[in-house]
């Protein structure tokens, strides 16, 4: 410690050299210490009362509470885009397959992989069943801005396919109303155009995969970029009704063997 500091901290010397503070300075200090002790006692006594007045609300152990992180991205009314499509009302088997694909590396999205990477099959199925049972109001129709001829091309591919290029119609697998088929084929109506475009790109680039045989990967390689643009634009322009639900059955066998929806 410096000489200056020792001088500042040293008590005042009395005539006999003892290091005591004069009485005039000791009395106020004693009163202050007494007041401080009394204030501390009052605060300590009030703590239990404050704790009892505002107890922490218990967090319910429900599936709805446990999937709040999922709903934060996939259940916002104003969000339905290429990154966060709506998953409510999709067939439970389809949602379960996608959760497993993210967990097992067949689909890549860091946030999804992080969230489901350590979850069991049973827990993934519980999550899928929960979201499959939700039916919020459908999203608004997206205006494509595409020429009528392009939209007509998209309609033909979706409803009739292109036999010369071995392209089955979307309705042959995804249902006559394109609302999906239980238990594992998703609906296409109501998906945003950018999301559909992104998924076809992911299949073509082998970033998205499914259980073998991967039927959608085969279809993606047969579609030209112009075809994808036409189909996604037409699908996004179709209205999804509040009563829309996945179909219970569809004609089998499917046009292509599909590991995610085996015959």
Summarize, please.
The termini are far apart. By secondary structure, the protein is mostly helical.
Structure, described:
By secondary structure, the chain is mainly alpha-helical. The chain has a domain at 63-236: Cytochrome c-like domain (Cytochrome Bc1 Complex, Chain D, domain 2), CATH 1.10.760. It is built from 12 helices and no strands. The chain has helices at 3-9, 23-53, 63-66, 68-74, 92-104, 110-116, 121-132, 148-159, 171-174, 193-204, 215-222, 225-236. It is elongated and about 100 Å long. The termini are far apart.
Topology readout:
Elements: H1 3-9, H2 23-53, H3 63-66, H4 68-74, H5 92-104, H6 110-116, H7 121-132, H8 148-159, H9 171-174, H10 193-204, H11 215-222, H12 225-236
Helix pairs in contact: 5-6, 5-7, 8-12, 10-11, 10-12
CATH topology of the domain at 63-236: Cytochrome Bc1 Complex, Chain D, domain 2
Structural class: mainly alpha
Order of helices and strands: HHHHHHHHHHHH
Task: Please name the fourth-level CATH homologous superfamily of the domain at 63-236.
Answer: Cytochrome c-like domain
- CATH-scheme architecture of the domain at 63-236: Orthogonal Bundle
**First-residue to last-residue Cα separation:** 86 Å
Percent range for helical residues? Answer: 40-55%
Shape verdict? elongated
Which regions contain 5 or more consecutive residues with pLDDT less than 50?
1-27
Largest sheet: none
Mean pLDDT: 84
- The number of distinct β-strands equals 0
Q: List the total number of helices.
A: 12
State the name of the first-level CATH class of the domain at 63-236.
Mainly Alpha
Task: Output the radius of gyration.
Answer: 34 Å
Percent of residues in beta strands:
under 5%
């Amino acid at each position: 410690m410096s000489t200056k500091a020792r001088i500042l901290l040293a008590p005042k010397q009395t005539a006999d050299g003892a290091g005591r503070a004069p009485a005039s300075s000791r009395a106020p200090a004693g009163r202050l210490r007494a007041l401080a002790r009394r204030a501390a006692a009052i605060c300590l006594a009030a703590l239990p009362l404050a704790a009892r007045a505002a107890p922490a609300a218990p967090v319910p152990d429900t599936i709805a509470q446990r999937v709040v992180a999922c709903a934060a991205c996939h259940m916002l009314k104003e969000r339905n885009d290429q990154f966060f499509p709506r998953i409510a009302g999709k067939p439970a088997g389809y949602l379960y397959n996608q959760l497993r694909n993210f967990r097992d590396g067949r689909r890549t999205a860091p946030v999804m992989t992080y969230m489901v990477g350590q979850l069991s099959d049973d827990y993934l199925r519980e999550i899928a069943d929960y979201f499959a049972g939700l039916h919020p109001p459908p999203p608004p129709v997206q205006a494509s801005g595409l020429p009528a001829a392009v939209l007509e091309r998209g309609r033909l591919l979706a409803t009739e396919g292109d036999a010369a290029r071995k392209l089955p119609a979307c309705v042959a697998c995804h249902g006559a109303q394109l609302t999906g088929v239980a238990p594992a084929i998703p609906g296409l109506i109501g998906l945003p155009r950018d999301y559909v475009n992104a998924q076809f790109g992911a299949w073509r680039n082998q970033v998205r995969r499914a259980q073998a045989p991967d039927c959608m990967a085969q279809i993606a390689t047969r579609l030209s970029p112009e075809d994808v643009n036409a189909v996604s634009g037409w699908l996004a322009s179709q209205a999804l009704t509040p009563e829309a639900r996945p179909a219970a059955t569809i004609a089998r066998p499917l046009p292509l063997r599909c590991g995610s929806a085996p015959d």
